[in-house]
User: What shape does this take?
Amino acid sequence: MTKLSRLALPAALLSCGPALAHHAMGGVQPSTALQSVISGLAHPVIGIDHLAFVVLAGLASLRQGRILAGPAAFALACVAGCALMLAGVALPFAELAITGSVLLLGVMLAGGTALARLPLLPVLGFFGLFHGWAYGASMIGAQTGNIAAYMAGFAIIQTAIGAGTALLARRLRSDAAAIAARERLAAALCAGVGAALLIETAEAMIFA
Assistant: This one.
């Protein structure tokens, strides 16, 4: 594997912009089921904070041998979080929780020492509520069918990216018991993304 290919994923993460609602729809709420699915597929991919966490969730799931269960637990929790937003339930400090989740999991993966003791599924589920809650803001006032299509879109793409990341990392490993340098690098860069966004979010809250 070349050095360039090892850096491809982190570089892609760093090139993304902050997550905003409905990039795929040009800022307009989707009006059909197809548009809703497309928006759901796009939102976690375009938002750097969400994408970074999904990648980290995949790597963490690989470390604990939960290649499918980890990403699926996160995706299902995102659906629940989205439903909470649409039901009018407020989650305090959601943006801080989202950016903080990227920093926390990135640091743990880069270090590798405490990850074995991490209750992975509950942690992914907890943070998934906040990520999904943020997604829900994009669909306030939408029809029930469109909301369901949107949820299906982001659940499918997040599970695919998380599990795909884990499978790719496992395939590229020369030693299944070793922590590959490329995984540490990806985790460290994701942690850096989380730290930068956390600081930005905190500053916005303080000086608002």
